[in-house]
Automatic annotation (TrEMBL):
Sequence ranges assigned to domain 6-phosphogluconate dehydrogenase C-terminal in this UniProt record: 186-475
Lineage, uppermost ranks: Bacteria, Bacillati, Actinomycetota, Actinomycetes, Mycobacteriales
Stated name of the protein: 6-phosphogluconate dehydrogenase, decarboxylating
InterPro entries named among the record's database cross-references: 6-PGluconate_DH-like_C_sf (IPR008927), 6PGD_dom2 (IPR013328), 6PGDH_C (IPR006114), 6PGDH_Gnd/GntZ (IPR006113), 6PGDH_NADP-bd (IPR006115), 6PGdom_BS (IPR006184), NAD(P)-bd_dom_sf (IPR036291), Pgluconate_DH (IPR006183)
Alphabetically ordered keywords of this record: Gluconate utilization, NADP, Oxidoreductase, Pentose shunt
Length: 483
């Protein structure tokens, strides 16, 4: 695409929506030498950004959408960083009316991917390129290098890719940004990324709970364990910040901060979206679902208050060998994490097939190695696994992860059984282990389910020894007929 350097139109990129994410991304662009046009509904945020950080690069201050659009080189590239939902639709409409065919509108907010599919189709009809870009890394990542997952028309990436790649996190010289696929695919993979983040956080929370309730560790002792783990296979942003959060002291009481925080987890919705989408696609994302439900249960404060003191039926003593149990928890965490990622990648494969996106799992593992919340050492292993076999039936079957789980399996079982006998909840550890056991089972009880379905609803079943569908005449002579 050609760049039209009409006088006045000098910005390479425009950012509208200058709350915490938008202003940090605008600064990131400017720090990388790009001229950035700034716009926000209320001018105060634009002025605050220029006053506090104007010296970091070349910014163009604008007040109206018309001024904003006029400040941009062609093809115009505008990144929207406003609240997801109706505000995003309102801003898209305003921009689309002021822009020209060939221009590119990027939504960097946390949009629901089906909204992105709708918006892309509607803007395509008007000759505009619409790019739904998942952006992960929070405020810090937005400023210093996020992981970026842009979807939308491939040709838009020619004009946009170099800009986005210049501000993304870099790992081993590779930017954590690549074109994901058509229409809603960028926001879809960002959604699943967030779902995996939920599962990862829940698993870490369960590990912490076991140290506290099974071994009697205080927050500092657990922080020491997480710091040590962060030097090994579990090295990741979430494990690293877990140690930092656990070590933080409350200025008011002198206690560990974690001990004065109310134990009711909130959620903004991307975990729930992931599970809803997985239900529609028929993909068991049990780890993510347990994490979403665990947050909901933690938030049911009245119900929990009423249930405190219910029978526990504690059937075990606390583990006698703390070092062994610590290693067991580490192994259980690793194995359950593999399951959570395997399930997330299954959902991505199913979404790719459903929407004909042709997504590449190795590319996703590559761009999640840096910048984003789930960045972790073992994403290199996931990338290797999918590089070797892009059609892996499950990540669990990759030789590296298969071996890792074989090493972890006894520890994993000990953790789940000990927690159960002690009455300590481990929904994500337990359901991940059950998923693994179900996946590897030669025979599942689903045969009985099929029999029941045929009994009450004549839904038919298949036989292990013959082709076709069959039905038993349950209310007749109980002979079998071919359906
Ligand atoms: P918010 O999600 O809090 O949105 C605030 C921005 O939206 C302000 O610039 C506000 O303008 C603008 N806005 C609203 Br609200 N309604 C508008 C409307 N009808 N028309 C025009 N502008 C409107 O900001 P954020 O936390 O910086 O997040 C921005 C996006 O990035 C969101 O979609 C979010 O989900 C996503 N995201 C956030 C994170 C994170 O860590 N926070 C990470 C990844 C993605 P005003 O100043 O005039 O009120």
């Amino acid at each position: 695409m050609t760049i039209d350097n009409t006088e006045g139109a000098r910005a390479q990129i425009g950012v509208t929506g200058l709350a915490v994410m938008g202003s940090n991304i605008a600064r990131n662009f400017a720090r990388h030498g790009h001229t950035v046009a700034l716009h926000n509904r209320s001018i105060a945020k634009t002025d605050a950004l220029i006053e506090e950080h104007g010296s970091e690069g070349d910014f163009v201050r604008t007040e109206t959408i018309e001024e904003f659009v006029a400040a941009l080189q062609k093809p115009r590239r505008v990144l929207i960083m406003v609240k997801a939902g109706d505000p995003t639709d309102a801003v898209i409409e305003e921009l689309a009316s002021a822009m020209e065919p060939g221009d590119i509108i990027i939504d960097g907010g946390n949009a629901l991917y089906t909204d992105t599919i709708r918006r892309e189709a509607s803007l395509r009809d008007r000759g505009l390129h619409f790019v739904g870009a998942g952006i992960s890394g929070g405020e810090e990542g937005a400023l210093n290098g996020p992981s970026i997952m842009p979807g939308g028309p491939k040709e838009s990436y020619q004009a946009l890719g170099p800009l986005l790649e210049s501000i993304a996190a870099q790992v081993d010289g590779t930017p954590c940004c690549t074109h994901i696929g058509p229409d809603g695919s960028g926001h879809f993979v960002k959604m699943v990324h967030n779902g995996i983040e939920y599962a990862d956080m829940q698993l870490i929370g369960e590990a912490y709970n076991l140290f506290r309730d099974a071994l009697g560790y205080d927050a500092d002792q657990v922080a020491d364990v997480f710091t040590e783990w962060n030097a090994g296979d579990l090295e990741s942003y979430l494990v690293e910040i877990t140690a930092e959060v656990l070590r933080q002291k409350d200025a008011k009481t002198g206690k560990a901060l974690v001990d004065v925080i109310v134990d009711a987890a909130e959620q903004k919705g991307t975990g729930r979206w992931t599970v809803k989408s997985a239900l529609d696609l028929g993909v068991p994302v049990t780890g993510i679902a347990e994490a979403v439900f665990a947050r909901a249960l933690s938030g049911a404060r009245e119900q929990r208050k009423a249930a405190v003191g219910l029978a526990s039926g504690r059937l075990a003593d606390k583990p006698a060998d703390a070092a062994q149990f610590t290693e067991d928890i580490r192994q259980a965490l690793y194995a359950s994490k593999v399951v959570a990622y395997a399930q997330g990648f299954d959902q991505i494969a199913a979404g790719s097939a459903e929407y004909d996106w042709d997504l590449h799992p190795a590319d996703l593992a590559t761009i999640w190695r840096g910048g984003c919340i789930i960045r972790a050492r073992f994403l290199n292993r996931i990338k290797d696994a999918y590089d070797e076999n892009p059609k892996l039936p499950s990540l669990i079957l990759a030789p590296y992860f298969r071996d890792a789980i074989e090493t972890a399996i006894d520890s994993w079982r000990r953790v789940v059984s000990t927690a159960t006998l002690l009455g300590i909840p481990v929904p994500a550890f337990a359901s991940s282990l059950s998923y693994y056991d179900a996946l590897r089972a030669e025979r599942l009880p689903a045969a009985l389910t099929q029999g029941q379905r045929d009994f009450f609803g004549a839904h038919t079943y298949e036989r292990v020894d013959a082709e076709g569908k069959f039905h038993t005449l349950w209310s007749g002579d109980r002979s079998e007929v071919q359906a």
